[in-house]
Automatic annotation (TrEMBL):
Protein name stated in the entry: Mycothiol-dependent maleylpyruvate isomerase metal-binding domain-containing protein
Molecular function (Gene Ontology), one example: metal ion binding
A Pfam short name: MDMPI_N
Transmembrane segments: none
Organism field: Streptomyces canus
Ranges for domain Mycothiol-dependent maleylpyruvate isomerase metal-binding: 17-88
Amino acid sequence: MYFVAGVGPAPDLDDAVPLRIREVGEQEAAGGPDVLAEAFDAARARLTTRLPSMPLDRPVGVFTHVLPLDQCLLTRLVELVVHLDDLAVSLEILTPSVPAEAAEAVADCLTRIAAVRHGFLPVMRALARRERATGPIAAF
């Protein structure tokens, strides 16, 4: 799993990959919200026709990694759901719900990452036995 690869301390936000992510985001946002929305709509239209016929093990480049398509889509889904919440909180509105299948996939992925990062027992206790939890558990 892409998110679990090399799980350790949180990355330094001044490292090459986080810097590149911010640079690309700033470049894509430079044209304003209308240009960004048009690019999103165009990408969605392309993917709507192409994705159903692509094999799930098709290699996809994501920054410095190459992932099978199914893992790439899972990472994008996690990012979308997490940042949907970030955006809603920043706008001081309720976080919109996501489809149950997406919520389940994201919860499963984040739980697995947290278990790799913290160990199974602390995650299980945080979820099921608050009185025995040793502290907060987070995937990232």
